[in-house]
Amino acid sequence: MHGLINRAIERFVRDTYGRDTWGQVIRRAGLDFCEFESMLMYEPEVTTLVLDTVSQVLDRPEADVLEDIGTYLVSHPKVEALRRLLRFGGQTFTEFLHSLDDLPARSRLAVSDLDLPQLELREHGAELFSLTCQGSRAGFGHVIVGLLRALADDYGALVLLDHKGEQGGTEVIEIRVLTTAHASGRRFDLGARVD
Amino acid sequence: MLTGKDQMPEDALYAMMDVLCPMHAVLNATGHIVHAGPTLHKLRGDAPLIGARFSEAFEVKRPHSDGSMSAMLGRSGTKLHLQVRGGQRTDLKGVLVPLPPSGAMGPAGGALINLSFGISVVDAVRDYDLTSADFAATDLTIEMLYLVEAKTAAMEASRTLNLRLQGAMIAAEEKAYTDTLTGLKNRRALDYVLGRLLENEQDFALLQLDLDFFKAVNDTMGHAAGDHVLKEVGRVLVEETRAEDTVARVGGDEFVLVLTRITDAGRVHDIAGRMIARLELPIPFAGQVCRISGSAGSTLSCDYARPSRAQMMEDADVALYSAKRQGRGQHVRYNASLNDDKDQVAQNVPPKREGDNASDGAPIRN
């Protein structure tokens, strides 16, 4: 698994629950290092182990943890760069939804060895969509749910999201866009400098 | 296509062009701007574009021309390098095509010019506060901005990794050059320092120092006391030398000091004397007192026509041997006659240096 993914889990735990909690995860998982390197590759078992342990330490179901990671990735100030990169996907939330099919290709442009699950958006009506995720690891759909929830806020849209479960390695998310201009959302300044 | 009383036939074309090429301008036969796309307007701030001469708003830098309409039309279809006049002086790329002489698509004798930011786009987006709506949907500018940001973020992550690896490398090197007990340099570090000094032909004094009675401390008071004594010795040796000097522990109780830029034997003798005097001070440990001393032999690089590491180490060792023979707690500077003494000693007298043979018992002062 790419270090960026493991690093995201780590940053989520550290920024949300503090260093001590992350230390607990490291000890309980028996890892011989305390930080993931974004730009190194790790065995897939490491990610599974860390997620299991985080779920145990936080005493929350893994699906909830994954969803929170997705929300964290968009809404936490420490990962502003990622929110910006996602906002390049479109001017409105609906436009953004239509850009999701390109997400793996977009990620590869930035980090060539980062393999994200294949996403496919289907339009069932003006405001009803379904998104299928075919990923290397089950549960990625929950991350997407959290990510979409936070991004909808970011765009100022009001949406209902429902993870419909997993079948044959494919997860389906139902997306109902109630309104695209519910709140003012956060501004996306194309030329802003991120430090 | 007339859709209203005031609507000119070209208006429909301009409306389409506003969507397809939001940075275009339509010029009349005299080179004045009669229409401009919405994004182009943003480049001029409050100054109106319509009615202005194109060459007053934008400078054609290459190919060089006088900016006249005939010169511009002469370059139709070729790539133009332009710059916004005044303000941010943003660089632009452009291409111009003449309008049909019939006047059906705009003023006869006029031209249609389309502009873009080229490589200046990252700054331009910030300078003019542009959004994705300012670019045509087919324009790759947004993708390019995305790529710039994504690559910057990825590069930053790589840079962080590089810094961490560099830190780990320095730590590993330090470790490889350090005697972990005393924090002094080790033999590897000493070899490196000597090699560098000799290579750069810098003068230095080489001093070998062995502890006297150290084995007795180790044997009677235990290894913890021995380790404590070695650390104290390390501290003394560092304190009695300058930062540019090298103090290395090369064996159990054997030390080598490299004193850089020293060519005066008297100074070496003073330094060695001071060190030995301090080593002879009692060292308290766990309610008891450890007593040691030190013997030293030295040689100066300036005494050799062509100093070599092996020769200098050997000569300092001969001097050290002589110091031990003269009684402990001495410093002896190397001279050639000492070699004869050593040969003689080797034939007649058993070695006195601690650790020289396996049956080395408790030290005897003689």
Describe this structure in words.
The complex is a heterodimer of chains A (195) and B (366). Chain A is of the alpha+beta class and 195 residues long. Chain A has eight helices and four strands, in the order αααααααββαββ. Chain A has helices at 3-17, 19-29, 44-58, 62-75, 80-87, 93-99, 103-110, 140-155; strands spanning 118-123, 128-134, 158-167, 170-179. Chain A has a four-stranded antiparallel sheet with strand order 1-2-4-3, covered by helices on one side. The longest helix of chain A has 16 residues, at 140-155. Chain A is globular, with a radius of gyration of 17 Å. Chain A starts with a helix and ends in a 16-residue tail after the last strand. The mean pLDDT of chain A is 90. With 366 residues, chain B is α+β, with helices and mostly antiparallel strands. In chain B, 42% of the residues lie in helices and 19% in strands. Chain B has helices at 9-20, 38-42, 54-57, 69-74, 121-127, 141-176, 187-199, 214-221, 223-239, 265-279, 309-325, 337-348, and strands at residues 24-27, 33-36, 58-62, 80-84, 91-98, 111-116, 204-212, 246-249, 254-260, 283-285, 288-290, 293-300, 331-333. In chain B, the strands form three sheets. A six-stranded antiparallel sheet of chain B has the order 2-1-6-5-4-3. A five-stranded mixed sheet of chain B has the order 8-9-7-12-13, sandwiched between helices. In chain B, α8 runs antiparallel to α9 and α11 packs across α12 (337-348). The longest helix of chain B is centred in the middle third of the chain and has 36 residues, at 141-176. The chains are: A alpha+beta (195), B alpha+beta (366). Chains A and B meet through α5 and α7 of A and α5 and α6 of B.
